[in-house]
Every structure is written in C-alpha cells, then in structure tokens.
Predict the 3D structure of the following.
Amino acid sequence: MTSLPFSPRPDRRAVLFGLSAFACVGVEARAGDAQRAGDADRAEPVDLPKPDERAVCPVCGMFVAKYPYWVATLRFRDGHVEHFDGAKDLWKYLLDVPRWAPGRKAEDIEAVGVTAYYEGERVAARPAWYVIGSDVYGPMGHELVPHATKADAEEFLADHKGRRVLRAPEITLPLLAALDDGRFE
C-alpha cells in the first residue's frame, strides 16, 4: 500500500479554519445585501463609450480624455455621442440643449452618464448625487462632484469640506453660473 501525500482525514484546525472562512463569507454577503438595500436610490452604472483622444467638450472646448475621472457622456437616440470634461458642463448642456446642439432636442437623449468620484465608473447622471463647494476641483474649477449613492456624497461632503449635496432637479443654470463664480448658494 502506498502512502498518500496528505492525510485522508483533516485535522481539527483545518476543519475549524474552513468553517470560519465559510462563516465570514456568509456574514460579508449579508452585510453587502444590507448595504445594497440601503442604496435603493443608487445611480446605476451606464454603458457609454469612452472618449477618444480627440474628443472635445462642446461647452468649454477642452480635450476630455485628459480627465478620465471627470468624464461625463451623453448619447442621442441616433447614436451621436457628446463627451464633457465634467458634470458641470454636462448639466449646462442638458439644461440648454438648443444653445449647445442646434437642431437637437433634449427628449432625443437616450443615455446620460457621469463618472462617480469614489468608484471611477460611469453612472446614470439623473439619479446621481452631487456635492458642491468642496476643496476638490475639476478641470474647469469648482465642480459638481458626482456620486452613485447618498452615503458616498455625504462622506465626500464631510471629507472634502463640501457645502451641499444636490440631486438633478436642484441643478439650474443660475446655480451653475454661481458655481463658475465660486459661489455655492
């Protein structure tokens, strides 16, 4: 009879270690489920193309690909895509489409995404949370800093001396003009 390179019967430590690892996975999964349940208002990821090196923001004229952590994108139903160097310029565009895209209509936009600050992934712009008045500046200065969840926005607000958390209905052209001037009303 040949001897096996391992014991056919595990020792007590191996069994306890395996059970404790399994128990931890279960606890982590339940905690994750609870966290997701608390994020019912989470801005979901959105599948939009990345800007190429020649993509220019239609609002300010800056090259967008240079600022990957700030990219915002929208896509019209006909497939035309616009990229922006931040959420602030995206919202200027969304709130005045005829100015920035003559001949196009806001209702023809099928998808809009912003880059969530902590996650670095593009999420739906309308349900996202935005912080203004922080010590974090975007490519065009004071910025609407996007977040996928209210918890992320509140954490960022505290960590970066932000002034306010906003949702899409609160974003207006006068607010964006004030933001350009460094006012956080």
